């Protein structure tokens, strides 16, 4: 079953870590994290996020690393083979299929967000969104309504452009395509991020925003909020839809999994926290409310940029940062499905890429766009098509797949999981028992809280 002899491996630990960091640093860190911080008490949320990364983030990264590297195959067959001398029941592959379905769901709306961002960049460049003079919330809300929700064919065109960029990179393969691209994209992301942070923390009145962001109001820390934050860590780390399983299947057997998982968790947290520094100081500097929810970066930040010297340039840099972050994530989510198609059907890579991207575009991206306008009366579970893809993949499929993965490691792989981890005896025992007995309980609490 193993395709180990045919498979490429990452050229170095740094290449793997950069790719995993890119996979986990997408809209989760640059779009979702900041608006959730704004909605949930600032520093209190940031503090809990850092705790949650240790409580569930890093242990679950290791769970998926162990599953992925053990067989060095796709995210479906990773749940097959033998464990402790016994054949693993085929039913466990259901977890792999659930992960693929979740990957489809997230890409269905994720690529559309990429189209939104490209639309903003294009509008800024041609002056359709003019930030050379101060604008107000009515202006930005009207632009969002007119150019996002009420311009479906424009958004479909921008989404198609974003999909095409992914296609050309994926067509070059794991090393020449994804790895080489991430080597350039991640440093570019850091440069954009640092430029925005330096600009915003030096604005007049920025100290108030920094205080809101860093000083936790412990009265706002509740068990309910902590459970909510634990769920965000799943989204932030791309847990539960096969990304880390797929990426670690290309990992050398001599690689230190504990070290790479820890670095991944730290990098994800660092970039998410830095993203807050480029947003909250500027919001407070210009008196813009921080709790505007999912539209924070699309409707609130343009107001900030319009009041800033060189605002249009900084707005283009900011939205370019979002595109880069989205691209490093979308490439790796696509790869989950592409690798599975290649290895399960023996399909050629370019054909698998075209089929994957084309099917998601037609069955996912277009309906997500039309769900805001022409198909706005179509609802799934009481939600728009766009929101339904988000909810079903993020609140149901990912969490159940992660729960099954933890149970698979603790009750099926057992000693094989310990051997694959390859850490010291004490650390391995602590991690294994924590994954076997504690993590499933935490995930079940997250699951019932999210319903």
UniProtKB/TrEMBL annotation:
Upper lineage: Bacteria, Pseudomonadati, Pseudomonadota, Gammaproteobacteria, Pasteurellales
Entry protein name: Transporter
Organism: Actinobacillus porcitonsillarum
Family affiliation: Belongs to the sodium:neurotransmitter symporter (SNF) (TC 2.A.22) family.
Gene Ontology cellular component annotations, sorted alphabetically: membrane
Gene Ontology terms for molecular function: symporter activity
Keywords attached to this entry: Membrane, Symport, Transmembrane, Transmembrane helix, Transport
Subcellular localization, as worded in the UniProt entry: Membrane
Superkingdom of the organism of origin: Bacteria
Keyword Phosphoprotein: no
UniProt-listed Pfam families: SNF (PF00209)
Residue ranges crossing the lipid bilayer per the database entry: 12-31, 43-63, 95-118, 155-175, 187-213, 225-251, 263-288, 308-331, 352-371, 391-413, 434-450
Membrane disposition: Multi-pass membrane protein
Family annotation (InterPro entries): Na/ntran_symport, SNS_sf, YocR/YhdH-like
């Amino acid at each position: 079953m193993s395709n180990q002899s045919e498979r490429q491996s990452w050229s170095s630990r740094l290449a793997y870590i950069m790719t995993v960091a890119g996979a986990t640093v997408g809209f989760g860190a640059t779009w979702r994290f900041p608006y959730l911080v704004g909605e949930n008490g600032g520093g209190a949320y940031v503090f809990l996020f850092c705790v949650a990364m240790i409580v569930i983030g890093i242990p679950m990264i290791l769970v998926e690393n162990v599953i992925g590297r053990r067989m060095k195959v796709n995210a479906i067959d990773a749940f097959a083979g033998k464990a402790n001398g016994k054949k693993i029941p085929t039913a466990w592959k259901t977890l792999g299929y659930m992960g693929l379905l979740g990957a489809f769901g997230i890409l269905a709306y994720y690529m559309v967000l990429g189209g939104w961002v490209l639309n903003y960049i294009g509008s800024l460049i041609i002056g359709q969104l003019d930030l050379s003079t101060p604008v107000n919330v009515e202006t930005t809300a009207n632009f969002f309504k007119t150019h996002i929700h009420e311009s479906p064919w424009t958004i479909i065109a921008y989404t198609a452009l974003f999909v095409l960029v992914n296609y050309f990179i994926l067509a070059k393969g794991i090393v020449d395509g994804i790895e080489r691209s991430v080597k350039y994209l991640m440093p570019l992301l850091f440069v954009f991020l640092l430029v925005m942070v330096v600009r915003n923390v030096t604005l007049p009145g920025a100290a108030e925003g920094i205080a809101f962001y860093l000083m936790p109001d412990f009265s706002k820390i509740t068990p309910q909020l902590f459970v909510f934050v634990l769920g965000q860590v799943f989204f932030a780390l791309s847990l539960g839809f096969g990304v880390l399983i797929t990426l670690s299947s290309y990992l050398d057997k001599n690689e230190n999994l504990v070290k790479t998982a820890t670095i991944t968790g730290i990098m994800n947290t660092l970039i998410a926290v830095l993203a807050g520094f480029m947003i909250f100081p500027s919001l407070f500097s210009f008196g813009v409310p921080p709790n505007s929810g999912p539209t924070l970066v699309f409707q609130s930040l343009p107001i900030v940029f319009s009041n800033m010297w060189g605002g249009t340039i900084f707005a283009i840099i900011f939205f370019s940062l979002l595109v880069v972050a989205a691209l490093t994530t979308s490439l790796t989510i696509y790869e989950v499905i592409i690798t599975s198609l290649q290895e399960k059907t023996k399909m050629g890579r370019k054909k698998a890429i075209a089929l994957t991207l084309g099917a998601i575009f037609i069955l996912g991206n277009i309906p997500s766009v039309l769900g805001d306008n022409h198909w706005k009366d179509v609802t799934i579970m009481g939600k728009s098509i766009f929101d339904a893809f988000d909810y079903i993949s993020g609140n149901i499929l990912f969490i159940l797949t992660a729960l099954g993965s933890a149970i698979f490691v603790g009750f099926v792989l057992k000693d094989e999981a310990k051997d694959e981890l390859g850490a010291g005896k004490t650390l391995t025992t602590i991690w294994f028992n924590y994954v076997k007995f504690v993590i499933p309980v935490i995930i079940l609490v997250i699951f019932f809280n999210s319903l």
